[in-house]
Amino acid sequence: MSFDYSPLLTIATDEFSDIVDRAENLNENLRVHLKDGTFVDAWFSVRSKEQRFAFHWERREKDGSIYRHNNIPDRKWSFLKSFPKHFHAGSESNAQESNLSDDPSTAFRQFLEFVREWLRSNTK
Q1: CA angle, 107 as apex, 109 and 79 as ends, to 5°?
Q2: Could you state, in order of their start, the residue ranges of all structural domains in the chain?
Q3: Cis peptide bond N-terminal to 73, omega within 30
Q4: End-to-end CA distance of the chain
Q5: Minimal CA–CA distance to 80: which of 67, 91, 94, 95?
Q6: What global pTM score does this model have?
Q7: Model confidence pLDDT, tens digit, residues 26-80
């Protein structure tokens, strides 16, 4: 059994066409290619009792940064109030609380909205 990424693909291409070039379902994850040459991966695991997820914005080739919300219970972030949810803000070592929804579609929209706002604020 695998996660159905088709609703997220539609969200990316229809609601975020101003920043999204294309999206592809890679079966294990959804890859969203952005117009600035970077990409976002959305990943869900349906293998455990609790749904695990990660939304990862790969920017290392552009500026060395990554941005990722996930709920994988990494003990080094257990001090965060939102644990196991956490947000890697710019690097693997900089984790903060995550306020993403538990609903996959809502969380994906929230993450892509973060990407959109970041691009608006940091791209000239």
Answers
A1: 140
A2: 6-122
A3: no
A4: 43
A5: 95
A6: 0.93
A7: 988 999 999 999 999 999 987 767 788 999 999 999 999 999 999 988 999 999 9
